[in-house]
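Example record for the data management plan.
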Amino acid sequence: MKSFFLKFFSLIYGMIVGLRNEMFDLKILSSREFDFPIISVGNITVGGTGKTPHTEYIIRLLKNSLKVATLSRGYKRKTRGFLIAEAGSTVKQVGDEPLQMKIKFDDVIVAVDAKRVRGIEKLLALPENPDMIILDDAYQHRYVTPGLNILLTDFDRLITKDSLLPFGRLRESASNRSRANIIIVTKCPPELKPIEERIITKELTIRPYQNLYFTRLEYGFAQPVYPDVIESGGQYLKALVLNGRAILLVTGIANPTPLKNYLIHQSHIIQHINFSDHHTYTNKDMDLVLSKFDSLPKENRIIITTEKDMVRIRELVSVPDQIKCNIFYIPLTISFLNNGGKDFDQKIINYVRENRINFNLHSRKNKLPT
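Corresponding structural encoding:
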């Protein structure tokens, strides 16, 4: 009976979302195009498909030669309107993912605005405006038409194998993958067989104007959440984890399973405290963490969390010293499989280069005297 009602509401939801997309397709609702390099990285799935590490990959690719800006809505922030993240910004001001990117890339402009058109206009009006903009989680924000639209889908749950909310996890029909210029299958196994690639390519019905890539998650050396308290750094901890430390895993992300599976291969004891995605940590939560940590063997134990959780945990004023001395986060990056990275990089670079030239020509033309 529950399944029946979920499918019924999925049908209603699909009709509403479908009508909205149809209104954009028919130009009843307007979508703004900019004569400027804008890349969107997003998905149509509720839950983590790896948007942040893929956005960071593009930042690393371009930041040494271009002035890069990112723009997101700043999910769960307590502020309104357009805001640029600073070194001293908080999660309440800009959201956890934008703050995470600002901490890692201080020379990148990290902005938030629920209204992406306004956010882009504000960025372009800056005294030192960026050379390009990355829209984070904007695939469904159709009031902007990006020059390059990147759609992510999870290897273990392809969008074509999923259903609309609330029966499934799709925020719109999988058929709307047709808007993407690039589709990336994320969280793939390290050794993806050619036959698996062909099956997925056929399943996603890749169109002539689209490119398909496959990526996997890469976990780095664990780093201290409180580096001023712990000075030993990541390689030291990695050796300890590989030696079988008892781990208390603390997460507040959409899908902690890949990280947990990674740690299972390194420890015989793992306890997991799993909060909801974007969870706001409290002192009560730290009491729970400390209680669970104390229940582990007294020797050879550690607390592991994610990079996104690290940003939120560090905002708590009073964290027990025992937690500060023993809590580490694991940085997350992505890598392309089967030599796809070089082709992807070149497509991104070519797109930005060509559209920067067009933007500069357009700007000079507009400045000519009449």
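Summary line stored alongside the record: The CA atoms of residues 37 and 132 lie 5 Å apart.
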